[in-house]
Amino acid sequence: MGRAVIVDAVRSAVGRGKAGGALAGIHPVDLLAQVLRGLVDRTGIDPGTVEDVIVGCVGGNGEQSATPGRQAVLSAGFPVHVPSVTVERKCGSGQQAVDFAVQAVAAGVQDVVIAAGVESMSRVPMGSARGDADPHGPGVRARFPDLVGQGVAAELVAARWKLDRAELDAYSARSHARAAHARDAGLFDAEIVPVTTPAGDAVTADETIRPGTTVEKLAGLSPAFATGRHAERMPGHEWVVTAGNSSQISDGAAAVLVMSEERAAALGLRPRARVVASAVVGDDPTLMLTGPIPATRAVLDRAGLGIADMAAVEVNEAFAPVPIAWQREIGGTDDQLNPLGGAIALGHPLGASGVRLMTTLLGHLDRTGGRYGLQTMCEAGGMANATVLERLG
């Protein structure tokens, strides 16, 4: 087995995933293309040496239906012989794309692979591929008759760990405060490549951060899922999940360059990190969002490390109960957990989020001199990815 290294990682700024959002006017293919172009320009590699572009994308319909990575490669001006493939593991799609790239290089199958992710939720709305269809089928429904949507699953997680509204809102206000500090201090500048919209505007900063967010303001929001059949099935439940303590619907793209250590050395490129271990697990599909807990245990065991060894941990903030429950079970300090804020403040462009988290985690390790970082995220169906990185150099 060879050694795969991460040479560089970049991302777009994140835009609000609705009409009028900063990135809503740009086709998702061209959004990803500009990020891919930014990655190869920054590293100076010949794009013709890229042997595959593995792209996480959840909404594989509409403008994201024609293998978006392949279209982005062509839009970015890469030679036509550079191929691409789409990975869809729900919210973990981008992280899984990185894992597949690392595995291909470590196995000696390829030497230069880009892992990327893209999601334009303003142009390809979440769930639009499913429509009114039941994606589970009668066999799954018979085995798990109490399946619910992700928002209600977040309510179930909050109830299981006895998380009240005040705790969720305090966590969410902290996410915005940390992200706002990072943005204002320029901590995201090195990881963001400018994206130019068709109107000629350069988008260079995350649009989703609300620096004035307070617990008092969040307390004024109504629960988002306390309606319809779920309210009838859960009488007496104290509903606590709101739009303010959930991730934001967003647009964005990100990309990571993975190489064999030998190829990077031959090109004079200094690797930034390596993947120490990765894991993917399934967990209870009804609770759905608890997968990061066993995934973290699995990846730390595989790496031979403990949570205290991690300089920082990125737990995707799909909903505030997710990272809080994770911390209750795994431990770690508040300073370790999402030190620059998370998806509650920075948005969650589904297929791109796994690569976005890794890009931000790498930047944080570089700035602070931390050695190890952990990244994990919950996924629909009760799955989760986890990855341990080691900073090099």
Automatic annotation (TrEMBL):
Superkingdom in the source lineage: Bacteria
NCBIfam families: AcCoA-C-Actrans
Keywords: Acyltransferase, Transferase
Gene3D superfamilies: 3.40.47.10
EC number: 2.3.1.-
Alphabetized Pfam families for the sequence: Thiolase_C (PF02803), Thiolase_N (PF00108)
Every Thiolase N-terminal domain range: 5-262
InterPro entries documented for this protein: Thiolase, Thiolase-like, Thiolase_C, Thiolase_CS, Thiolase_N
Protein name, as recorded: Thiolase family protein
Statement: the UniProt record of this protein carries the keyword Transferase: yes
Domain Thiolase C-terminal, first and last residues per copy: 270-391
Record family assignment: Belongs to the thiolase-like superfamily. Thiolase family.
GO molecular function, one term: acyltransferase activity
